[in-house]
Amino acid sequence: FTPTAGQCATIATFTVTVTPNIIPTFSFGTALTICAGGTVPTLPATSTNGIAGTWSPSVVDNQNSGVYTFTPDAGPCATTATFTVTVNPNITPTFSFGTTLVICAGGTVPTLPATSANNITGTWSPATVDNQNSGVYTFTPTTGLCATTATFTVTVTTNIVPTFSFGSALTICAGGTVPTLPTTSTNGVTGTWSPTTVSDQNSGTYTFTPTTGQCATVITYTVTVNPNILPTFSFGTTLSICTAGTVPALPTTSTNGITGTWNPSVVDNINSGTYTFTPTAGLCATAATFTVTVNPILTPTFSFGTELNICAGGTVPALSTTSANGITGTWSPATASNQTTGTYTFTPTAGQCATTATFTVNVTPNTVPTFSFGTTLSICTGGIVPALPASSDNGVTGTWSPATVSNQTTGTYTFTPTAGICATVVTFTVTVNPIVTPTFSIGNSISICIGATVPALPLTSTNGIAGIWSPSTISNQADAVYTFTPNAGQCATATTFGVQVNPIPSVTVRTDTTVNDGSILPPTNFITTPGGVVLNWTNSNPAIGLPSSGTGNVPSFVAVNTGNTNITATITVTPSINGCIGTARTYIITVRPLNKDVFVPNVFSPNGDGKNDVLLVYGNYIDKLEMRIFNQWGQQIALINSRTQGWDGRDNGKPQPVGVYMYALRAVMSDGRTIQLKGSITLVR
Description:
Blueprint: E1 31-35, E2 53-56, E3 66-72, E4 81-88, E5 100-104, E6 122-125, E7 135-141, E8 150-157, E9 169-173, E10 191-194, E11 204-210, E12 219-226, E13 238-242, E14 260-263, E15 273-279, E16 288-295, E17 307-311, E18 329-332, E19 342-348, E20 357-364, E21 376-380, E22 398-401, E23 411-417, E24 426-433, E25 445-449, E26 467-470, E27 480-486, E28 495-502, E29 506-508, E30 513-516, E31 520-521, E32 527-529, E33 534-539, E34 549-551, E35 557-558, E36 567-577, E37 580-581, E38 585-592, E39 603-604, E40 622-630, E41 636-640, E42 650-651, E43 654-655, E44 659-669, E45 674-683
Parallel strand pairs: 1-4, 5-8, 9-12, 13-16, 17-20, 21-24, 25-28, 30-38, 39-45
Antiparallel strand pairs: 2-3, 3-4, 6-7, 7-8, 10-11, 11-12, 14-15, 15-16, 18-19, 19-20, 22-23, 23-24, 26-27, 27-28, 29-32, 31-35, 33-34, 33-36, 36-37, 36-38, 40-41, 40-44, 42-43, 44-45
């Protein structure tokens, strides 16, 4: 200690000796991980580096995790030490197949995995499950894992073979007796059959599947069905003869070797009948029949009769090669004519019990109806059309369809003569031409700017209508409607062409403006003439905070300039109305930057008078701030983290004495710069 000059005092010294603290160490380290019940060390009262002390707790628990703290005795320069013991519980391995399994012999058994479902590795003994014999399989975890052994018990039940009263096979004739398939075997096994019902018509194998959960095997039942043979004879199964024709004798053995008897035993050639052959008992054969049809001698008949009277071109029947009563044959001539009278002869095909027949067609020629208005007419929509008479000029009566001629739509009208009159159908075609609206390449209206070029008015429309305009020439100075009148004799209506003449718009903009960064510019409302003008504006420099373009008035915006020099933007406003664009007007906005320094006042007076009571940091572009304030002894008494926080001259709520305080400041600016300042602050009251 050196006294201030001028005082009668000597220099004095104060010596401080600092001994470093020793960290106690132990042979078992600072941490131990064991399985529950594992070996743990005894906690010694002296560390391996000679520090004496006590433990809390004093004994290590081998069942629960814990932290044990060694506190050195008072006096030695030593720190406390901890010993952390982590006790892991012993896990019982689990497996997806559980601990037991009951199966039928040969059933599905799991593969024994080397890792349990809860991730314990180990080995099995035996290593593979036997699906024929019961057994217990033991899983032993890998040495070093906190896990217990586990067992898997497999019980194997012997399979039963189901038996049935009808045995395992059966042979029958088609249609013979077959058993019902029961759902329970004679030795008590339940199950289902597939198919479920025995067919007495087709051979097949029927499979019995025991119900799930029973230890029983699948068995089959085979049924052989021998088909019944149909006896065949040289004369077939039917015979058709004319009355008194030749008939065969009925034999007692079929051509395919089936013996039997007939009933009746002799064929009658006068009356139709059916004769039944019954096979001898014990043969797999069916009864057979022989049907004899005795046909009378017939005259062929037809649906169209024997005579027909028609008009020329009338409907004549197709000459069928089979009569209504079933006689086939041929016609001569083969086709009936609807133009000339004739007789047609039907000759039955040989071998049929029938005679010839004739068909006579009498043909009357047709008259063509004629009318005063001819067969065609062409009119404009709404033109004059004739009435349709019920009798032609040459005396043919009939009806029209449609009955009345339309003067609005094109159509064909058909005259159908009265039934029974030999006359042809005639048509009357009316073509109705629509009233056309003339169309022009210039459209039906135009909007122009005053004084602009206007089109000439053509005397022929694009759809071919000729006519005249009134007025005949378009004016580019005033709105007007021009009427086109078609020349007489054309199916067309008058049309108009409208011309709208628009004024050239103008706009008045504001004067040039200069503002500071962060200033709010109010909306700019422009003055336009005439009313209804559309404004489009552009901004040459969007960096000032205004979009590059827009419509209507310029909206309010916050001016931006974080640089070091003034920036300017030219705002260009263009008026338009109905496609007429006026002269663009411009004005300039200048945005000045703000000061980029950081300022800390060197004096403040926290005396509660509302003036300069709080010390604040000032700066326009501060993003992050940290200022530490120290007293005369180097103690930090305040930390300021934002521009709005400030220091009120207190430390932990206690007013600090008048005097000089030091500060250290670090500020990160919005442009990325870091400013570091140090200085003094005088606190006065």
